[in-house]
Each structure stands twice: as structure tokens, then as C-alpha cells.
Amino acid sequence: MCICTGTRNKEIRFANLEDLNTVIWRFDIIHIKGEETYGMPRTVPIPPMIRPLISKYIAARERWLGEHGIESKALFVSQHVSNRGEHLSSNGIRNMKVYVEKEVGVKFDLRECRRTFGQRYLDKDIDIETVSVLMGHSSTKTTETFYGRRKNVKAIEKVEAMWE
After folding, report:
1. 76/13 Cα distance (integer angstroms)
2. Burial 103-119, CB ≥16 within 10 A → b, else e
3. Which residues, including other chains, have CB under 8 Å from residue 156's CB and lie 6 or more apart?
């Protein structure tokens, strides 16, 4: 979800099941960085490539909750005994990251998932304004400074295509 929706750790941790729309495949990011100060909630589209994984996860989530007699609004549910059924903790996210790293054999930084999200859309010729909105930035300057810029080769290709 992080790499495909550009979400931050907090945004994933505090997501609720109702924030995910699997009919039109959109994800409402409500609990954002800068919540109650400068941050703005946003909605992002969910790419087709991860929709089957999300559907499998939702089914597994429902099975697990049913087996344990738990009701939860959390999209990503803690299985830890002390807060079972609640939202994941920061440590819970880190533990999942370590598990994924072992499974795929690649170490990564969760912040890089967000950067990859921004750069991937820019590399696909999505304009900086659109990427900035999807990332929840108040200006394109933040997006450009910290998350991605059009690569030189892409800029050249775009200009050369115009000449044709």
C-alpha cells in the first residue's frame, strides 16, 4: 500500500476499513501528517496491480477477526495480545517491514516507498501538480525538492516527441 498509494507510516497505521473503497478502488487518507495543523486529508487511486492483493488481504483480515471474535474498524489490525483488534502500533509496522524484508530478500526504508510513488508517476509523465496533490503537499516545491523530479532523459524524450 505504501509504495502504490504514497502513504506515510501514520497514514497506513490509522487507516480504517471504511477508508478503502474496493468498488471504485480509491483510498481516503484521513489521518495525515500535520493533522489538525497544516495537513489536508486526500484520496488516492489504487493501481490495478495491487487490487488482487488488497482483496486477498481483506478476506484474510475478515477470517482472522471472525476466528478471534473481534470487531475492528482498523484496516491493518494489530494481532498483539495487549491491543488485539486495534490499529497497528509504529512498532507493529516496523515488525511487518522486517518480515517483508526477510521474505523478499531486500532491505528498504518505508520513506523510500513514498519517494518511489512520487518518482514513478513523474516518470510516467504525470504532471508535478497532480503528483503533489496525490502526495498531500500544499505546493509542488515540496514534491520536487524531496520526492521526485522529471529525469533528464524524460525531459529530452518529451521535447523530442513534440518535434515530431
Report:
1. 7
2. eeeeeeebeebbbbbbb
3. none
* Distance in angstroms (rounded) separating the CA atoms of residues 99 and 15: 21
Give the tens place of pLDDT for each residue, 73-123: 999 999 887 888 899 988 888 888 999 999 999 998 888 889 999 999 998
| In the predicted structure, residue 1 carries a pLDDT above the cut 80 | yes
CB atoms within 10 A of CB 65: 17
Helix ranges (H only) for 34-137 are: 51-67, 90-104, 110-123, 128-135
Predicted local confidence at residue 13, as pLDDT:
92
> Residues 92, 80: contact at Cβ < 8 Å?
yes
Q: Among residues 67, 79, 80, 59, which one has the least CA distance to residue 17?
A: 59
Give CA–CA dist 102/124, Å, rounded: 30
pLDDT of residue 152 exceeding 90, the answer is: no
Cα dist from 12 to 9, 67, 146, 158, whole Å? 5, 24, 20, 35
